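Have a close read of the entry that follows and walk me through the local backbone shapes. See right below:
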Amino acid sequence: MRVVAKRYQSPINYRLREIPVKQIKIWKDAQARKLDREGIAELARSIKNEGLQNPPMVQKESKNSYLLMSGQRRLAALKRLGAKKIPVLLLTQSTKYDLENAKAASVIENLHRNKMNTKDMTSACVFLTESVGKNKAAQSLGISQQTLKKYLGFAAVPNKLKEYVPKQLSRDDATRLYQIIPNISKAVRIAEKIIPLDQRLRKQYLHTLARRPKSSHPKLLKIAKAGLLQQKVTLELNKSNARKLQSLAARNDMQVVEMADKIMSGYLKRK
């Protein structure tokens, strides 16, 4: 039997075969997430009652060894049922993957079939990026480059920027900087300028940089310093003073908060 399917943006040819379960290999780094026991038990019951509707996909590695491309949960369920031999969709020689792309395809298959938490998604993004590169990883997952970077976090930071960690920059600072400025040369230049800043000012600088990525360093530094000075202060007034403030604000056609700010600013200037 020969079947042709459209998957992973290119035609894939495979044939239906029956092979021993023990000959199917699952590489640890290609598993997109841990399999929950309850889900596997339920799937096993379904296969037992209704049969296997969609066999796992494999490709031949050697004479008695096959790499699992998709169907990790189905394989686990069949093992739970005690199957010795199982039907599989065996990729033909013309459409088989090389090892790294095979692993990537397996991860992508799992990602599209399962809901993943952030930690698992991050692990999968790191694996795909190392296997097929950032562009292809983002495209395969159906996410933007920026979203991919957020999942990758510090793992996505280039080595030139990582060299500053942890002695001169924190992991968070390096990650944040690269997410804002993906151009590594420019990111390194900015890193060298913010290293002398204390942690609070550096954090405010990066916050300002995210909003104004095209601004000059002196301007960013000025805005960041001003941002640190703008602290919110809560004043508790008794009923009498609260009424006086409200009345004063009304006479000056101002909001109460604006009036309080004006009074406080005037007081501080006189001091």
In short: The first strand starts at residue 2 and ends at 7. Residues 100 and 131 are 6 Å apart (CA to CA). Residues 1-10 have pLDDT under 50 and may be disordered. The chain has four domains: 2-109, 115-153, 157-229, 239-270.
